Amino acid sequence: MKRLLTGSQAIARGAWEAGVHVASGCEGEPSGTILQTLSALGEVAVEPAPWERAAVEVALGAALAGGRGLAAVPAGALAAALPALDAASASGAAGLVVVACDDPSGRYAPPADSRLLAREAMAPVVEPSDPAECREAVAQAFELSERFETPVVVRISTRLADSAEPVEEASRRAIPPRGRGRDPAAAEALEERATFTRVRGLERLAQLAAHALEAPLNRLELRSAEVGVVTSGLAYGMVREALPEASVLKLGLVHPVPSGLLRAFAGRVRTLHVVEELEPFLEAELRAAHIACDGKDRLGRTGEITPATLARAFRPGAERAGAPEPVPVRPPELCPGCPYRALAQGLKRLHVSATVDPGCRAFPAFPTLGPVDRAPGQGAAAGVAHGLAMALGQRIRGRDVAALPDGALLQEAAGALALAAQGQGTVLICDVGGGGWTGSGVRAPGGWRVDPASLLAALGYASVRVVDPLDLGATAAVLREELARPASSAVVARAPCTRWPASRRPPMRVDGRRCNRCGACLRLGCPALSDDLESVVVSASACAGCGLCAQVCRPRAIEPCGGARS
Amino acid sequence: MTASPTTVLVAGAAGQGAEEGGALLAAAAAAAGHQVRLATERPPSPAAGSVLCRVRFGPGAVPTPFGPPGEADGLLALDRLEALRWIHEVRAGGFALVAAATLPTPAMRLGIAAAPPPADVLARLRARVPRTAEVDALGLAREIGCPLYGGSVLLGLAGPLLGIPEPALDAAAAAVEPAEAAPARRLALALGQSLLAGLPEALRRVPGPRAA
After folding, report:
1. Which residues of B touch A325 (CB under 8 A)?
2. Can you tell me the distance from the alpha carbon of B62 to that of A260, in angstroms, rounded to the nearest whole number?
3. Could you tell me the pTM of the whole model?
4. Do B38 and A361 make contact, defined as CB atoms within 8 angstroms?
5. What's the complex ipTM?
């Protein structure tokens, strides 16, 4: 029976059918959907993890116990799990599959190339081209992992994760756990272990390269003898669409690269192109083998590959699409009622600059909301702000905070937060109450929960205060006091993400007779508010009832539906 | 000669139900026995931004949800601005069905930019794709209690233009999650179908298959 499944759902389905025992992953996409789907299918121990490295370690533990373990990381986040992937590779883990996702568009995550990271960890990479292949790829990856005693990375893209097609479904295979194995590297003396594992890894890759020559994952489609294309992943479909006459070597196992296969294919076509997203990974292998080809010089290293990009690259001038109409843009926005908006407003009032972690993805996109000066990356705000304070000393004291969501706490806790606790800076934690980056992120049920206030106190912060960020006056007062404190301090701003229905309150309304259209409420950037030329109006269906607009309204024209709030 | 796949874009702003419409069309095409692929582009934040579903289907192989640039056969837009944003991807002989609604952008909400007049938008759309019609899809969806079903209203109207039989649309209503919404979707599809008689003759004409 077939069902319409996205790439993420098909990965989960494939893992479930392949008898996966334990799955772990982080909030975000595609990992959230993969875990949610597995959780709904049942029979799998699903463990939402606070960060990528923990997810891979949990799955590694399952694999070392003789089971099948799956780890899923959000788009662009394999780098955060690299130490765990390295450990898995060194351990010779059998039955471990790590799902990584790249975002060549850069819309959702930094456009990193997971193949480079997997190569660093000496792990093979399987790359499906569509949702049906996603389902099959997981089972193939588990088989490879068990046969060659290695973690296997299944690489998809955000575009593939969100693409859907009818996918055949099968029943779950019963895979009895193999029993706990023993890592031969563990018997080696510490100083010889690294050499031992590296030699073993190289031998394994050589065996995999030999296997890749015959592996059904790699497919040769001979058509024209004139033009040949080496490709993989979602780009395969784009090539078939844009260059239907071309011969194609479709690689499903992209690392280790089967050089012999590439050479044989190159010998059968007159001109050879490489079509791959992000880095010239396959192209570099071809060039290293002295096989003439073109690739990134024609397609570039940024952006997604689509029939349009291929048409521009291979048939310039033939494109029939006209120029787009000039249309006002719709930038990403914070949701109505979002506590981040309130916090940004509070910081703006105090003229405080902020180093932020991109908790809600829209946060750094709105510098006009608040003084977001730096957004160095997830898990980095506290350390960067501490370094900033060390360099600038009194010039910045009391005028800069590190703002991070509760989801970043465990990433930072052991290191940067503990260091910052020894200084005199202020950290601001946006505690959305779900143990994650943001309530809107896709996540599996259950999971971890940390009380930020207890953790920060344990790390040595001299003062830890909890505030409701939706109370602008009280939040500003607490922030003012803590910024003036001559010791480290932490402010936990606790308010639930408005994506959770339970956090919604009755909507606000505007008394048109009192509204003087000063625009103070509109400058909050709330999608529920708009100016209809006579007064500001509130969309009752969009409003979450946070009351922030009422707090900034000097003529007191805004109040909750059903009467003023006490 | 083989017929090339049909490409339909379903566009809207976040929260308008474009994803629902795209999934429903893909499920309907599959129920009609077609090969089908769907790609969804959603904004990085859940509150705002443009959403686009590309649905591609046909009796033969469909290698990718992306058709050749500028060659889409139809556009179902839940918002005038979103119709304008994607109209260049539709071939001149295709069609566009646009909901009579404009969700303001942040600049418009602040009063520092004005929404283009609806008549102007319609004229620009028709200059690109003459077979363009505006219908009150969201108003009808609100009548059944949820504006999220505006996509289903448009699909009910577009089904006959795309050669998707009624039983396939009916099956799709139950195939898309959540299944409990099937009765409301069926109602929305029926409301959309009821709009067909009001379309101009040129728009009601079902195009023949295009050669690949």
Report:
1. 84-85, 87-88, 124, 128
2. 31
3. 0.91
4. no
5. 0.91
